């Protein structure tokens, strides 16, 4: 008797050709908490920490619409170093800041609440977050861990494994924070190439899920511009105008630099057929994707 193959959501999504552009969740503030033990299914919320501290951190995070993720170094226990926490913030106009601290006791995490109201330090290199949260989704571990290892060989000080960041079916997922750039459908080789280019301020559209400061239709429009005009820097284009008409959008994408054009992009939202979208999903569900129906130079 043949044993059925194990279902993997990332394999299924690749076979279906699920569109990747326009799938980055919103977020401009990141709270990172290094935790070297096992990660619960629900991440920070599932940790056995002081309930009052957890409540304070969660309340402050909700107020800022911040995403809380657990982090750890790939394959490194680092028993002689204190676990760290960080608040990373991306601001309008492209500036960003980081505030790092350390914790031995649960009460030390209260520093996160204070840091959310502090300016932070500017000029630090970005953090590379690789989702490897296997208890949340099998694909994140199977595809994420090789990517984390490969990236840590080149950028050991920048790379962290992390808990769920969304879009399990696009594993391996890499988030550059606080830049707010999501990449997906990566393997070890493509991840190294994508990060090399990103750190050289050349963003390619092939693995780009989107910028977290933009809406999904805007993300899809910008991705289409990069496909048409070629890779560009994180802030070389901006969204000048977005007009919605029911399930269609007209997005004006404008280049900031000399030689870059302005584009008018039309985007149409469509709902795909229902599928099992994650490894642990109990029933099929349908995702909305954003199809670019026209693009021309304004």
Structure write-up:
- The structure is a single chain.
- This protein has helices at 9-16, 51-64, 111-115, 138-154, 188-199, 216-229, and strands at 29-34, 67-72, 84-90, 96-102, 121-122, 127-131, 159-162, 174-177, 181-183, 208-211, 237-245, 248-255, 262-271, 288-297.
- The chain is an alpha+beta fold.
- It has a domain at 9-213: 3-Layer(aba) Sandwich (Glutaredoxin), CATH 3.40.30.10.
- The strands form 2 sheets. The chain has a 10-stranded mixed beta sheet with strand order 5-4-3-1-2-7-6-8-9-10. Strands 11-12-13-14 form a 4-stranded antiparallel beta sheet, with helices on one face.
- Helix 4 packs across helix 5.
- 41% of the residues are buried.
Describe, in short, the structure shown:
This protein is an alpha+beta fold. Helices cover about 25% and strands about 30% of the residues.
Search tags:
298 residues, alpha+beta, Glutaredoxin, 10-stranded mixed beta sheet, 4-stranded antiparallel beta sheet, 29% strand
Largest sheet: 10 strands, mixed
CATH uppermost class of the domain at 9-213: Alpha Beta
**Weakly predicted, low-confidence segments:** none
- Please work out how many helical segments DSSP would assign: 6
Assign the structural class, choosing from mainly alpha, mainly beta, alpha/beta, alpha+beta, or little secondary structure: alpha+beta
Query: Quick check: average pLDDT?
Result: 94
DSSP, total strands: 14
Q: In CATH terms, what is the architecture of the domain at 9-213? A: 3-Layer(aba) Sandwich
CATH topology of the domain at 9-213: Glutaredoxin
Question: What's the CATH superfamily of the domain at 9-213, by name?
Answer: Glutaredoxin
- The end-to-end distance, rounded to whole angstroms, is 61 Å
How helix-rich are the residues, as a percent range? Answer: 10-25%
Anisotropy-based shape: globular
Task: List the strand order in the largest sheet.
Answer: 5-4-3-1-2-7-6-8-9-10
Radius of gyration: 19 Å
Portion of residues in beta strands equals: 25-35%
H/E series, N to C? HEHEEEHEEHEEEHEHEEEE
